[in-house]
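Continuing the series of single-chain predictions for the mutant panel. This is the parent chain; the variants come on the following pages.
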Amino acid sequence: MKKIIITCLITLFTMIGLVHLYNNWYIDYNLRKYSVYYAHNMEHKDGTHPEMAMALENMDVINKPDNKNIRYREDGGHTINKNFLDSEQFSINYNRGEKELFYGYYDITYKSYYFNGAFKLTRAYDSSVGHDEIDIKTVDQEALYKEIYKNFGFLVEANVNRKPLINMQKEFNKKYYKRFN
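Parent structure:
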């Protein structure tokens, strides 16, 4: 009788442990791998771009299309470089700063644009004449976002229609709703 009780307890605790591991690892992986899909289907405030933010933040687990002009770097932060005609270069990156995460976009005119966690423009610099800060009120933000999506939107397009087997939209919304609203 004692052997049966001990065997049942061991089996029970093993099952509880496996369920716990599955929930913690699989849910996190699912939310990261399908983050662009979930971000696309989440309500968000105008001016935020959760699809691009999630694509850059989770670049190590999402689908990355192969292109001869694109180079992905995942050491430290995540960076994507796009060479155009072997001379002009665009770059976009994601870094986790000391206090918050941020994104940077660098274009061929030596201008640098920095975005907060919701992918809203927070500051800009012009390196062609020094390192002068640009007033973000003078930046045509709609044109800037169009340029970013023209150069790097392929990453969002490759992942926005990838539906997960187990839809965890509610969990994604719980985790990211405040950030994008």
